[in-house]
């Protein structure tokens, strides 16, 4: 059985970075994926600034506090733009142990739209009443934006940063990755739908709500997220080989 130890979290977080690279969701050396250390409510693992996602290994992940200060593992600094966002959510939400932030084309396009996510496609319906929206204030560098981001997120697990990108949070790495995948698919389908002439078929709020509740139940209350994450890692390893020197998984 998978154990929630720092060693295992380092491996799984490095795998998550490689998966985001594998699916083409990276933004060069920018953006972050962070995970809370077991038994350490204000300490997290995150990537060192300057590495491509496929260069992240279990060994070169940094331990930082909620303000982005390095606790251990060298002198390389994390990107300061990340922990105004990641640190704020981690510090305020005990239920969010992993946060993933991306700027994919489809997600950024949806973030530009006043209406945000459509809830009329299969994946968008799964996000109904699960998305918060935060008004763009520039690059997320400043501590004074933290309370406003948290107010925008509320009790939800998806935060659309208007004119910017998205952040998703989950109770662990696989569940955060699964939620990111749903949001990415919803955004892609919404963008493609917008290119086709004609009226869209809309869903009732009743159907949307039931779909979102069922999707949340699958992610939170079953092993589906872990199975999906493991399958994605197997597929990636089959196509790309070992993820880092010494990878024997």
Provide structural commentary.
- The chain is of the alpha+beta class and 249 residues long.
- The protein has one domain (6-240): 3-Layer(aba) Sandwich (L-fuculose-1-phosphate Aldolase), CATH 3.40.225.10.
- 41% of the residues lie in helices and 15% in strands.
- The protein has nine helices and eight strands.
- It has helices at residues 6-22, 80-83, 86-92, 105-112, 122-125, 146-153, 173-193, 205-221, 224-240, and strands spanning 33-37, 40-46, 62-65, 70-72, 98-102, 131-134, 158-161, 165-170.
- Strands 4-3-2-1-5-8-7-6 form an eight-stranded mixed sheet, sandwiched between helices.
- Helix 1 (6-22) packs across helix 9 (224-240) and helix 4 packs across helix 7 (173-193).
- The mean pLDDT is 91.
Task: Briefly characterize the structure.
The protein has 249 residues and is α+β, with helices and mostly antiparallel strands. It has helices spanning 6-22, 80-83, 86-92, 105-112, 122-125, 146-153, 173-193, 205-221, 224-240; strands at 33-37, 40-46, 62-65, 70-72, 98-102, 131-134, 158-161, 165-170.
Which key terms come to mind for this protein?
globular, 249 residues, 9 helices, L-fuculose-1-phosphate Aldolase, eight-stranded mixed β-sheet, alpha+beta
